[in-house]
Amino acid sequence: MPSRTEHLALPVGRAVRRGGRVARRAIRAASRRVMAPIAIFGYHRVAEPACDPWELAVAPERFDAQLQVLEAHGQIVPLARIPQANGLGRLRHRRALFALTFDDGYADNLHTALPILERHDAPATVFIATGMLDKPWFWWDLLAQVMEGPDVDPDRVVAACLDRQLIDQAELEDVVPELHVVVHTRLKGRPLSEIEEVVASVAEEVGVAADPADRPLTTDELRTLAAHPLIQIGGHTVSHAWLPGMGVERVRAEVREGMAALDELVPTRDPRPFAYPYGAYHRAAVDVARTLGIPTAVTTEPRTVGLRDAPLELPRHTPVDSERPSFEIWLRKAVLGRRVPSGVVQGPLTARPVTITG
Length: 358
Ligand SMILES: [Zn+2]
Known about the structure:
CATH superfamily of the largest domain: Glycoside hydrolase/deacetylase
Bound molecules: zinc ion
Number of domains: 2
CATH architecture of the largest domain: Alpha-Beta Barrel
Helix content: 40-55%
Largest sheet: 5 strands, parallel
Structural class: alpha/beta
Number of helices: 13
CATH topology of the largest domain: TIM Barrel
Low-confidence stretches: 1-8, 343-356
Mean pLDDT: 89
Order of helices and strands: HEEEHEHEHEHHHHHHEHEHEH
Number of strands: 9
Radius of gyration: 23 Å
Distance between the termini: 60 Å
Shape: globular
């Protein structure tokens, strides 16, 4: 039988723990009132592609509406301001701070996104995988068209994948329902030239042609984009490399050579930020970024920037093609941590459950 003190210890302990929880909640609520929320948004495209299974594109009018919502709830600032504004710097800001980024280097960033950014006077950082410049397509888009485009015969796709040993007969039943994800995952760690060769040959065999609207920037277009005062160009490796699958020397070469190519093509005096391809990174990648003197690097971990987030591991939300009301509800709830008025119909969340792009 427990002694009287031991007997009392249980409820007292519970009360103390409950009190601790209440206090922590109060501190969090108070800090939200005095410290501005900070969020980085990772876009890819402003376009309306026919086939977009990874939800990389936001339609132009919806992108415009999303910027209106961001302006109504905070201030859109250059990415470089975010690490400085984090920590106690937040106390100086009364309104939320938002930074816009675009990954990969799609031509529509110049032709469609930039005019909308100009209308809002909104700065943005565009992360370029330099090995993709001047190419007719990004391999993941052509693969998506092969795997999920309309008018493609699935049996021919499976046969083409078997021929190239992307899958084997024994696993057919398991992999066919998830064929796109399986093939994408198996390809992404290979050298870019090999991936492009395989995807091009499968596409040709099943009769799929790339849509020119999905193309990367040309070198000249990159120069035009970089010369715009609202735009900053950041690194995204040379080949859009899957860094966690590489040894440290290859990681260093991918990051350094991508940065060097940008310094040659679009020189700048400002320190250049970096985005981990696919949002995927490991300790070695962060160490490489640090030793190369990169000031800021972003992931695709879908959260708002926390007080303790390091400048080389900043999280990003990935907005999808949602209309103004559902974007605003999501922003208030997931980003600003505010209550949504009751009776408001919940729209689809704009954070994707699976992040394999970035
Ligand atoms: Zn990317």
